[in-house]
Design brief:
The chain is an all-alpha fold. It is built from 3 helices and no strands. α1 packs antiparallel against α2 and α2 runs antiparallel to α3. The N and C termini lie far apart (59 Å). 1% of the residues are buried.
Length: 79
């Protein structure tokens, strides 16, 4: 009984770790890079119009990261 549980843990632990790493590489790191770029542009914005543009882009980025409904909601955000 204990050997069966230990075998399940030993087999599933690497799979879970690999899934977390893949998620970080494909979702989180690109989002952080895009956020850093947009925040830099926010700092360099010289007019209210530019600032509002980059603020909308940042808002769309955050909304698009919401699972399942994020992509559809981000399309509805005022362009």
């Amino acid at each position: 009984m204990k050997n069966d549980i230990m075998l399940v843990v030993v087999v599933t632990a690497p799979v879970v770790i690999i899934c977390i790493i893949v998620f970080l590489l494909n979702v989180v790191f690109p989002m952080l890079a895009e956020r850093k770029y947009i925040k830099n542009e926010l700092g360099r914005a010289c007019s209210d119009r530019d600032y509002a543009h980059w603020k909308r882009k940042l808002k769309r980025l955050y909304i698009s990261c919401i699972p399942i409904v994020g992509k559809r909601l981000s399309e509805r955000v005022k362009k």
